[in-house]
From TrEMBL, chain A:
Keyword RNA-binding assigned: no
Matching PROSITE patterns: PROKAR_LIPOPROTEIN
Keywords linked to the UniProt accession: Cell membrane, Membrane, Transmembrane, Transmembrane helix
Species for this entry: Holdemania filiformis DSM 12042
InterPro entries xrefs: ABC_transp_permease
UniProt-recorded name of the protein: Branched-chain amino acid ABC transporter, permease protein
Localisation: Cell membrane
Membrane topology according to the record: Multi-pass membrane protein
GO cellular component: plasma membrane
CDD domains: TM_PBP1_transp_TpRbsC_like
TrEMBL record, chain C:
Record's bilayer topology term: Peripheral membrane protein
Pfam families: ABC_tran
SUPFAM superfamilies: P-loop containing nucleoside triphosphate hydrolases (SSF52540)
Species of provenance: Holdemania filiformis DSM 12042
All copies of domain ABC transporter, residue ranges: 4-239, 257-499
Subcellular location: Cell membrane
Designated name of the protein: ABC transporter, ATP-binding protein
Amino acid sequence: MSKLSNRLMKTSPIVISLVSFVLAILVSCVIMLLCGYDPIFAYSVIIEGSLGSVRSLTNTLIQATPLIFTGLAFMVGKKATLINLGVEGQMYTGAMVAALVGMTPLPLPGILHLFLALVCGVIGGGLAGALIGFLKVRFGSNEVITTTMTNFIIINFCDYLVNYPLKAEGAVAQTNKIVDGALLGKMIPGYQLTWAIVIAVLAALIVKFVLEKTRFGYEVRAVGLNMKAAETAGIKVGGVMMKAMLFSGALAGLCGAVHVTSVGKRFISGFSPGYGFSGISVAALASDSPLGIILAGIIFGALKTGAMYLNMMSQIPTEFVSVIQALVVIFVSAPLLIRALIGADRKPKKGGRSHAE
Amino acid sequence: MLNNITGILSTMFSMSIPLILAALGGVYSVRSGIMALGLESMILTGAFTAAVGSFYSGSAWIGLLCGILGGMIFGLCHGLLCIRYKVNQVISGIGLNLLATAASTLLMQIIWGNKGNSEAVASVNTKLTFLKDIPVLGDIFSRQSVLLIFTILVCIASWFILFKTPFGLRLRMVGENPKAASSMGIPVRRMKYIGVLVCGALAGLAGAYLSIDSLNMFVRDMSASRGYIAIAIAILSRYNPLNVLLCGSLFALCDAVQIYVQGYGIPSQLVQMIPYIVTLLVLAFGVKNIQPPAGVGKYEDE
Amino acid sequence: MNSVEMIDIVKQYPLVRAVDHVSFSLGQGEIHSLLGENGAGKSTLMKILYGMTVPDEGEIRVNGEPVKIKSPKDAIRLGIGMVHQHFMLSPVMSVTENIIVNHEPRKGWLIDEKKAEQEIQALIDRFHFNINAKAKVQELSVGEQQRVEILKAIYRGANILILDEPTAVLTPQEVEELFVIMRNLKKDNKSIIIITHKLKETLAIADRISVLRDGKMVESGLPLGNVTTSDLAKMMVGRDVELNVRRENTNMGEEFFRIQDLQLSERGVQVLKGISLSIRKGEILGVAGIEGNGQTELIEVLTGLRKADSGTMTMGTEAIRGDAHAFLKHKIGHIPEDRLSRGLVAEMSIEDNLILGYHDEPQFLKQGLLQKKNIQSYAEEAVGEYMIKTPNARELVSSLSGGNQQKVVIARVFKQNPDVLIVAQPTRGVDVGAMEYIHHQLLRLRDEGKAILLISADLDEVRSLSDRIAVIYDGRIVSVQQAEDTDELSLGLLMTGGKEEHHEQAV
C-alpha cells in the first residue's frame, strides 16, 4: 500500500487538480454540444459574465464567499478522517441562530450586534457539528449517514420555524429582517459586495495557521493519517475528532451567519442551493489546502456567476456547474484514473530488459 | 381504528419496497467488500432513467428495465473507481451521489424543460388486485405493486444465494478476506464487480419503483436520502437478506406513520423529520457492536 | 525426477531486483529448506512458484513439464499448495467453509454441506490434525489454524507444499507437532519447501537447503551433512554474525517498576488474571508467551492505552494511573509491537514522527504553538545519532526501510530518556543489521540503569537479551526465572500451559 501511495505522490496534487478540472470542463463542453450550443461561445459568455466587469467580478466574489467557508469546513473534518456531509445543516443552524440574534433589537452598537450574531452563528454551527462528532466517538455511528440524517432534520426544522413561529408578514417563508446596524457593510459603494469575502479569506488564513502551527493541528494530522499511532502516542483521538467536528461545524455556522447578515439580510427558506455540498468540490479542487480553497472557491464562484449570466442568454441550465463540481470530486479522488487518462503511467515494456544480455 | 391500521400497514408495505431493495443491494455490495455509500446515486439514477425510458418508449416495463440499467451503470462506476482506480470508497460514493443529483436535475431540464419534476410517464400499474376480496388482508395488499412479491422473493432467494451456494461462499470470502480468496484462485475483482452490479441493479429497481410505480413521474431529488437509510438498514440487518426484509419494514413503518400523521394537521416539516430521527437513533444506539465483513475496503493486491 | 525446477528466474521491482537469475529445484518427496534474511527474495521466489507474481524471465518446470503459472489457480491445478505466513483464513467462517471455498462439493445449485464436512473430517482424521471441521476458525489456536491452511492445500490435491515461515508463530511444542505432520506428509510422497530464517529448525527437519541472499542464490540444494548453524548464518548474511549478543549485567539496581495483580476483562472474558511483576533498574525482564495469551492487553495496560479493572502500577514509590498521555509523562517509554499500525504515522515526516507523543514537551510547544526550529534541530540530531538512513528529516517515514522506520521509533523513545521501557517485538520484520543495532541499543539503555520490559514472540530474542524471563500463559504469569536457568524446552512447556514452576511471588 505504501508503495502504491508513494507512486501516486509523484504526480503532484496540483497537477491532479488541474487535470481533473480541465477534464470536468471538457465534459461540460460535451453537454453543451449535445444541447446544441457552441461551448467556446458559452465559455466566452461565462468568462465575460464572471470576470468581464467590476460588477461581474464582485458577483463572482459574492458567489465565492460561501464556497470558501464550506470548502474549509469540509476540509477540516476530512483532515481528521471525518466526512462531514452535514456542512449544509450546520450552515442552516448558524444562519438561523444568527438571524434570530440579528433580528432581535438589542441595546448594542451595530457592530457589536453584528459580532454577537456572527459568534452565535458560529456556536450554533459548531454545536451541530460537535453532535456528529459525539455520535461518532461515543457510538461509532457512521458520520456520512448521521450527517445526512441531521441535514434533513435541521433543514426541515428551520423550514418549520420560518413557516410557523418565526414567519414574517407576507407570502414568503422567511424571518423578519435583520436590524440594519447588524448587517455587514458594503465594500464598494454601489456594489452588492460586502465584507463577507474578507471574513472568508481571514477564515482560510486562520485555518491554515491552526492546522500547521498549533498542537491541535498537529494532533489532527496525526489522527487523520494514523489513528492508532496517535492513540498510542497519548493523543486523545475522540477528543481531537470532536474538536475537529466542532471546528468544521463552526466554519459552516459562520458561513450561514455571514450569509444572512450580508446577502440574505434575513433567513429565507431554502436559501442555499447546496453550498454545503459544493464545499466538497471546493476542498477537492484545492486538494485540501486552505489557501487553495480561496482560489477554488473563486473559480467555482466565477463558474456559477458566469453560468447564471449564460442562462439569461441561452437555454443552458446552470446545473451544468454542479455536474462539473461533482466530476471534480470524482476525478481528484482518482489519481490513478487521471494518470491513466493523461498516459502518465504507461509502463516501459518490461522491467530488466536492458540486463538481458 | 381498523381502517387506520390497515391504512398505515398498506402504506408501510408500499414504502418498504424501495428501502428493502436498496438495502439488499447494499448487502451484496458490502458482502463483496465494497462500501455501499453510492446507493443514493444508484436509486436516484434508477428513478430518473426509468422515467426517461418510460417517457420515450411509452412502456413502463421498458422503463423498469432502464431503471435497473441506470442503477447498474452507477454501480459499475463505483466499482471501477474503487476496484480499478483504488479511490477511497466513501469519497467515490459521495462523488457519485453529487453527480447523480446534478446530472438528473440537468438532464431533466434538457428533456422536459422543468426543474422540479418530469412530465407524466407511463407507470407500472400491475397491482395485487386478486387479493382484494380477502377481508383485512385484501385492504392492505390489494393496492400493492407486484414488485412487493418480487421484493420478498428476491430477499429469500438472496439468503440462499449468499449462505447456501458456492457463489455466495466465494462472495463472502472475498468480502471477509480478499487476499485469502485470491490465494484460493477466486477472481476477486470479478466477484467485487458482481457485488456492485447486483447492488446497482437492485437500487436502480428501487428507484424505478419510486418514479414509475408509486408515482408516474420523476421528481427532483426523489430518492430523499433513502440510500443512506438503506445503508442503516443493511447494517442493522447484519448484512443478512432475511433481516433486511424485517428491518426494511420497520423503517417503512416510520414513513407510513409520518404520512398518516400529516393528515392530522401537524406541520409537515415536523413529521417529515420522523424517519430521519429514527435512523439517527438506530445508528446511535442500535448498531454499536455490528461489524461489517473484515475485508471491506481491502483488496487482494495490497 | 524433480517435482519443481525453477531455472534462471528474474523478478525486477521498480526499485529492487528481488530475484536475480535464481535457479532452484525440489526433489520428489523431500523437505527442502529455503533460507534467507528478510528481503533476500525467498518469499518473492515462492510467490512466483505459486503464481502470485509473474517473473520477468526464467522457466518453471513441474514434474519435468515446462509450465506457465499466471495465477494461484494455475498453481493449484499443477498440485502446488501454499501455506502463508499470515494465514489466509476468514475467522468468522467455519473450518469447512474456509477449506472448500472455490472447490465446493455440490448438490444441484447448492453446496453439499454434509459431504463437505465428511470429506474434511476424513482428511483431519487421516493426518491426525485433531480439529473440528465445524468449528469457527476464530475459536482455534494459532497452531490449529495453521493446520487448516495445510488442509486447504491438501484438499485441493497439492503434492507440492510451500510453507512460508511456518514456525514463526508456534511454540517449540507446536513446532514439534508440525514437524511430525511434515514427516507424515513426506511419507505420503509429498514434496515440501519450507521458507525460514530459523537455523536450528532447518537442521532439524530439512533434507536439503538452499540459501538466498540479496536476491541471489548463494547455496543451492546443499544436502545436510556437517553443516552447523553458524555456517548457515554466515551463508545468509555473508559475514560472521554475533548470534548471541548476551552480555553480563553489572549494573543492576533496586526494584523500580512494579505491577501488582493486574486484572482485565474483555466482553465478559478475563484476559489478564492477576498479573504481578517487578523490574529492577538496569534489568531487562523478558516476557515469553504464545501470541494471544494476554500480551497485547498487558502492553496496553502498561502504557495507559487501557485501564485495568483492578491492580496497581508503581514507579519507585509513586503510583501511576491515567491515560497513555499520563504514562508518557511519567517517563514510561513505549516501543509498540507493530510499528506501522501503532508506532508511526507513515505519511508524516520523520521530524513529526520523532516528536509524536512528546509534541507537548515545552521544548517543542510553547503556548499551544509548535516550535518549528527546535523540532528541526532536534530531528536532525536524532537522525545522526541513531543512524537513520535518509537525505533529511523532512522526508516521509513511508520512504524509509523497515529497519530505519524502527530506528525512528527507537530514537523517539530513547531520546526522551525514559525511566521505564515497555518494548514489544522490537525487531519484527527488520533485517539482521538493524536487529543487531537495536539489540545493542537496548542493552546500552539497560546498562544506563533503565528498567526494561521486553515482550517478544521470538523466544531466541527473549532468551538472549533478558536478565530474567517471565512466561505468560492464559492471562497469568506462570513462571519467572533467571535467564541462565531456563532452557528452551521447559519454557516452551510453560508457554503451552505445562506445569508451573519457580513461581516467584511478587511482594
